[in-house]
Amino acid sequence: NLQNVFIKRGKTIGSGGFSKVYEIEIYPVEPGVDLTTLSGVGQLSPTKMRRGALKYVVPSPSSGMESLMELYIMRHISHYTLNRALGVQIDRIGNISIIQNLAIGDAAAMVRKSHHRLHPKDLKRWLWEIVCGVAQLHKHGILHGDIKAVNILLYYDSETSPPIPTMSTTLHCEEFGQVNVKLNDFSLSRLILDANLGTRDMPRHITYT
Questions:
Q1: Quick one: which H or E segment has residue 73?
Q2: pLDDT above 90 (res 17)
Q3: Is the pLDDT of residue 205 over 50?
Q4: Is residue 128 a contact partner of residue 177, using CB atoms and an 8 Å limit?
Q5: How does strand 190-191 pair with strand 142-143?
Q6: What is the DSSP letter of 47?
Q7: CA distances from 107 to 83, 92, 112, 206 (A)
Q8: Which residue has the higher pLDDT, 120 or 183?
Q9: What is the C-alpha to C-alpha distance for residues 87 and 157, in angstroms, rounded to an integer?
């Protein structure tokens, strides 16, 4: 719940056809503080700041339904393998800001930076979490439609996570400790017309294109 917070937008960390993702700083704000003044801004506490990410979507006539589907999934389907929206803001012209936790990175960057030296135990657990995420979507009658390494995000599965490490070329998996993966980017997700699929605990064999 992102009530009574001030969000400071930082660098761009990702982009797509109709969206950009920014790193953000989230500051709690005491009731009655006027952030339009310098004294009000001066009351923001860096020690209480937490980092997050903001996906800024500019819907087009052709992408409006995709944006609504992504919002529905991120706000209403709660599962530890699916990326969640902490909050949503829609401005007066319909542009959407989806606030979420800041990931360590995506699976593609992890594999690239680690030179493929990832522990098999972690790979098996991450693969299982991907399967569970897909199954969870299928139980709700939804097909992800765009599963690839850049859409699989890595997170510390705790709100009191240790500092995010630098992904250097000498990275080894054990530097991260307990890391979980979450499916992300539901902009191409679609409802599945096969009603039987939603009753299965595990996904069927479906080819994603």
A1: helix 64-76
A2: no
A3: no
A4: no
A5: antiparallel
A6: G
A7: 14, 35, 9, 22
A8: 183
A9: 19
Name the 3-class secondary structure at 97: strand
Average pLDDT over residues 109-121: 77
- Please, are residues 96 and 56 in contact by the beta-carbon 8 Å criterion? yes
d(CA 63, CA 80): 27
**pLDDT tens per residue, range 147-174:** 999 999 998 764 433 344 444 433 343 4
Residues with Cβ within 8 Å of residue 83, at least 6 apart in sequence: 74, 100, 101, 153, 182, 183, 184
User: Judging by beta carbons within 10 Å of its beta carbon (0-12, 13-18, 19+), is residue 78 exposed, middle or buried?
Assistant: exposed
The rounded distance, in Å, linking the Cα atoms of 85 and 105 is: 17
14 touches 8 (CB < 8 A): no
Assigned token pair, 39:
């004294």
Q: Are 140 and 189 in contact, with CB atoms under 8 Å apart?
A: no
Q: What backbone torsions phi and psi does residue 206 show, to the nearest 5 degrees?
A: -120, 130
Find out whether 153 and 182 touch, Cβ atoms under 8 Å.
Answer: yes
Of 140, 24, 195, 3, the C-alpha closest to 183 is 140
DSSP strands (E only) in the chain: 5-15, 19-28, 50-57, 87-90, 96-101, 105-106, 142-143, 152-156, 179-183, 190-191
